[in-house]
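Class, look over these structure tokens:
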Amino acid sequence: MLQDHLDILLIAIVTAVACALPGVFLVLRRMTLMSDAISHAILPGIVLAFFLTESLSSPLLILAAAGTGVLTVLFVELLQRTKLVKEDAAIGLTFPALFSIGVILISRFAGNVHLDMDAVLLGELAYAPLNRLKAFGYDLGPVSLYVMGTILVLNVVFILLFYKELKLATFDASLAAALGFAPTLIHYGLMALVSVTTVGAFDAVGSILVVALIAGPPATAYLMTDKLSRMLILSAVIGIVNAVSGYWLASIFDVSIAGTIATTMLLIFGLVFLTVPNRGLIAIARRRTRQKWEFAQTMLVIHLFNHEGLPEAEAESAVAHLHEHLSWNPDFTTQVVKYALNNRYVSRKETQLTLTEHGRAIAQQALVQ
């Protein structure tokens, strides 16, 4: 029993990392919809390869599915290049058609095998350890672990070998072409990698979780950094955290492992989305609040500076009447005055405000700009 839990957890971790690494480039290219398309459109390739081999463990299934994934990308781009439809419409036309073909083939010709629609869509990690790799009378462990482990190594090697080319083609395809890096070839190589990764994870976790694993960790990491190398590392770490926490929660509540991992992924993304420094919603709200007070404070010192030394200076700098001169709410005016006093932009003598040297410099700088 303990070994089964360990096997499931390892499969989840390896699958999460294997999906997250190429997913980084899809997120940066704003092609996460394409991962959804590929994860569904590879179905007819799997089914047709199964009909040819009559085996669900044949390597031909991975090759056929990867080929179908690349074919999906090609169809989408051909439709998009006509300029008659946009990318999202091209994806919406292509992958439902291919996925439907796969579903029809399963329901019509594969009803007596475990290649059913529920397994295809949802997957079930709890069953993954049941398919064991055996050699010379020894049980070597779950097949899914070896498959995803091999794909993870393939992904890491591909990214390490073509890191410079992938980086350049992702951020500036025109420059990559000018420098002779063949961005189109790199693009289809990446799409082939995504297709292989998708089909490798297909049987264990299902197409829904595949999309979540490809998009979730990279999107979360993207909120945390702009540096590609750091984003790759963070995506892998976040994928591991998602897999471990999702499996732990699924064990506690006795619910679907794949569903819990996907839910945990959303919760972690939401937490980072709210709290990440500088980019999170809380940080943005604080920055906007600070900017509002700083802008109001600047308007106050400009007002005082413009009337400094003039006959009306006493009336214009009276605290009780500032809200009238600046057309502000009285409560808001009181808060701005407190903010300016705390920052030593102004000083107060009874009912009058006067500029400090610092406040006068701020007003002059603002007027010059």
Notes: The longest strand covers residues 138-142.
